[in-house]
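Good morning,

Attaching, inline, the backbone tokens for the sequence recovery test we're adding to the shared suite. The designed sequence is right after.
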């Protein structure tokens, strides 16, 4: 008994590749050296730091986001 895949009516020929149309994934994301305005530590951010704007390292960024919350009142 042999079952051939795709021998029946079901064919996988039209399968779409997952995450097809996205084009920006060319290798690892570029990291930029920056100094965190919170803890003054050197860090790397996945975006280009804008001059005059505060840059936060990952931990400070998370901390800030946590403390700001989503507007559910203060806990
Ligand atoms: Zn920091």
């Amino acid at each position: 008994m042999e079952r051939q895949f795709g021998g029946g009516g079901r064919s996988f020929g039209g399968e779409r590749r997952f995450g097809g149309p996205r084009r920006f994934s060319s290798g690892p994301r570029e990291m930029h050296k920056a100094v965190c305005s919170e803890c003054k530590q050197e860090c790397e951010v996945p975006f280009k730091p804008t001059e005059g704007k505060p840059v936060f390292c990952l931990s400070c960024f998370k901390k800030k986001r946590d403390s700001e919350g989503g507007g559910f009142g203060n806990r």
